[in-house]
Amino acid sequence: MASAQDRTPPRRLSPAVVRAEIDHGTAELVADPDRPLAWTLLVNATAQSYVDLSDPTHLEFEYVRRLGHVLDAAAPPTRPLRILHLGGGAWTLPRYVAATRPGSWQRVVELDGALVDLVAARLPADGLDLDVRVGDARYELEQLPDDSVDVVVVDVFAGARIPAHLTSVEFVRGVARVLDADGIHAANLADGAPLQFARAQVATTAAVFPELALLASPDVLRGRRFGNLVLAAGRRPLAVPELTRAAAAEPFRARVESGRELRRFIAGARVVTDRTAGPSPVPPPGFFGRPAQ
User: Fold this and answer.
1) Burial grade of 273 (CB within 10 A; 0-12, 13-18, 19 or more)
2) Hey, which of 182, 224, 232, 254 has its CA 20 to 30 A from 240?
């Protein structure tokens, strides 16, 4: 028979935390006590990335899974892709692509050089052949030749907000320029009711790309809570049925809106230009905060 000591529930240990000063504030790496070798990256108390070094195909954050769906549907399974990642974080999606599409060419652009050094030292990506550049996302985009990549992933946040200069139609035209004819533009947006920012971003992207799809939780699409919306766009029809099936199979189901639904979503929204651009709205307190301990 077990003793009283044996029946005592194990005490949950506080996760390990690594803190470091970076170029634009403070970064923290918080260990996941439930998954060995898994870490959440926070910058200035805002959750930026989650990485499981033992399983790079595990995508913890909902919006990252949806970006993963877009990448999965971009080409037949395992086919290498040329991908530009604007916004580095802890390189979650580049690790995912390296595992699922070996041989892909990937360039990662991150503004904060000290953050790049921290990730490289603490969450190494040895052998993945990532081309990591320190610089401004829009500037680095402009350095690429025409028709040179298959996918551009835009996931850039300054603190908890998307910078204004990455929200304009001029920026989206720059993305279109570097994509080949079958290329896909994938962007992580963040917004809440009345979804004015998200609607304007979809309208702005629709001014450049004829084919669009928006992936998000139903309650976010209805404006019931602040959240992430993943926008996919291209010159050719997108794999909407595949995206819909993948989104519906998630633990927290997402919807995919396209065609007539998306035209209704952006009705009355104005295209954003460099002159009128502003950053994404400030999220409610704690939305992008520290993971539960």
Assistant:
1) middle
2) 224
The tokens for 144 are 């690429």
Give the helix/strand (H/E) hosting 116.
Answer: helix 113-122
Residue 49 dihedral angles phi and psi, to the nearest 5°: -155, 155
In this structure, the chain runs to a length of: 293
User: What pLDDT, on a 0 to 100 scale, did the predictor assign at position 289?
Assistant: 64
Number of H helices, E strands in the chain: 10, 12
| CA dihedral (235, 200, 171, 286) positive or negative | negative
Q: Tell me which residue has tokens 């926008």.
A: 231
Instruction: Split the chain (293 residues) into runs of 10 and give each run's mean pLDDT.
Output: 41 75 96 96 94 97 97 97 97 98 98 98 94 98 98 94 98 98 98 98 98 97 96 98 96 95 97 98 78 52
Measure CA of the first residue to CA of the last residue in the chain; give whole Å.
33
Q: Is 165 helix (H, G, I), strand (E, B) or coil?
A: helix
Q: What is the pLDDT of residue 287?
A: 74
Q: Is 174 left (phi over 0), alpha (psi -120 to 50) or beta?
A: alpha
Q: CA dist 203 to 120, 168, 184, 198, 250, Å?
A: 37, 10, 17, 9, 27
Distance CA 229, CA 209 (A): 18
Contacts of 235 (CB under 8 A, 6+ apart): 176, 179, 181, 182, 183, 209, 210, 211
Contact of 85 with 60, CB cutoff 8 Å? no
CA distance 189 to 213: 13
Residue 189 pairs in a beta bridge with 229
CA 120 to chain centre: 19
Asked if residue 161 lies in contact with residue 252, where contact means CB atoms within 8 angstroms, the answer is: no
